[in-house]
Write a sequence for this structure.
DNA sequence: CTAGTGATCCGCT
DNA sequence: GCGGATCACTAGA
């Protein structure tokens, strides 16, 4: 059994090594449960970003907005999208190497009523099907930027080991124009809680 | 089903 | 000024 003791030098949360390359982390996060103050669900869709490719917020260098991406792994990077939505990434690699995984969709499992309140919507399928919707359903805002993922209000729960791991599919990332060919989007095969279908 | 559009912030060219 | 790692809503095929 692995200890849950916080240790910034071995950034393991829910059994995932956040110092690994972001596509590997993005793949492993499928099936992990993400809760904020006990509200959330199973991660069913992610995207990886890395400073070495043009779609990454850190591609053009460090600035005030993306500074957290350059920090230590195992922390939350929260940014404002299109001036309206809050989206959350998990920071990967190591201090100075900007990389992260965007949480694009959850299968709601915990405190759906709380998420319904925040989203003003009943249908479970649409509560967390997209990065902006995840942010709204979990009550994320700028104050979460830079928080560590191994302490309150965050909980990351590894997938149950007594069941087969989810089947994972991959494809090109959504909504970007640069480095659009990289297959760095990951999702649970057949999930009805994805932001969009994966091409067959 | 697809296509088009407005909302609204902020760092960059 | 420009343009996004988006969403909700509308109109039309």
């Amino acid at each position: 059994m692995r200890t849950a003791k916080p240790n910034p030098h071995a950034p393991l949360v829910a059994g995932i090594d956040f110092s690994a390359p972001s596509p590997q982390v993005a793949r492993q996060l499928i099936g992990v449960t993400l809760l904020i103050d006990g509200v959330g669900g199973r991660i069913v869709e992610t995207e990886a970003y890395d400073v070495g490719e043009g779609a990454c917020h850190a591609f053009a260098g460090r600035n005030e907005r993306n500074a957290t991406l350059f920090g230590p792994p195992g922390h939350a990077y929260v940014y404002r999208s299109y001036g309206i939505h809050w989206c959350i990434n998990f920071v990967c690699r190591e201090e100075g190497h900007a990389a992260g995984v965007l949480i694009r969709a959850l299968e709601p499992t915990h405190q759906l009523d709380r998420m319904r309140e925040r989203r003003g919507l009943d249908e479970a399928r649409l509560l967390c099907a997209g990065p902006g919707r995840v942010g709204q359903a979990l009550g994320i805002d700028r104050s979460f930027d830079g928080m560590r993922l191994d302490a309150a209000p965050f909980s990351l729960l590894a997938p149950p080991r007594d069941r087969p791991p989810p089947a994972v599919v991959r494809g090109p990332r959504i909504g970007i124009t640069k480095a659009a060919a990289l297959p760095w989007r990951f999702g649970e095969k057949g999930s009805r809680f994805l932001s969009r279908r994966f091409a067959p």
Residues 2 and 137 of chain A are 30 Å apart (CA to CA). The radius of gyration of chain A is 16 Å. Helices of chain A lie at 22-29, 112-119, 131-137.
